[in-house]
Design goal:
Elements (H helix, E strand, L loop, with lengths): L13 E2 L2 E2 L4 H5 L17 H11 L4 H14 L21
Antiparallel strand pairs: 1-2
Helix pairs in contact: 2-3
Length: 95
């Protein structure tokens, strides 16, 4: 509930004085969430995953697509944005 991913069924919750229902983007900008396991959406492409997670922090679709492209270039993955996540190697030692 405090991560804004689940709405409270009753009552109210606040993070740094911000209502998790009324100001979810502001709340997410102030917290960090570390999942227990990697959680990319395997049905989405690499770009779609990056855009989805950017939207979680309030970035516009256009800005997040542009930034995602920049990140892929920086990581040497340009041209792989339309690949499904499972099509990428999990072995980081080869690069």
């Amino acid at each position: 509930m405090l991560t804004t991913r689940v709405r409270p069924s009753a009552g109210r919750a606040f993070v740094h004085g911000l209502d998790v229902v009324g100001e979810p983007v502001a709340v997410r900008r102030r917290i960090g969430v570390v999942p227990q396991r990697p959680n990319p959406d395997r049905g989405l492409t690499v770009i779609e995953n990056l855009v989805f997670h950017a939207a979680y922090f309030g970035f516009s679709h256009a800005a997040s697509r542009r930034r995602a492209g920049e990140i892929l270039v920086r990581l040497g993955l340009e041209g792989r944005g339309d690949a499904k996540v499972d099509e990428l190697s999990a072995d980081c030692s080869s690069g």
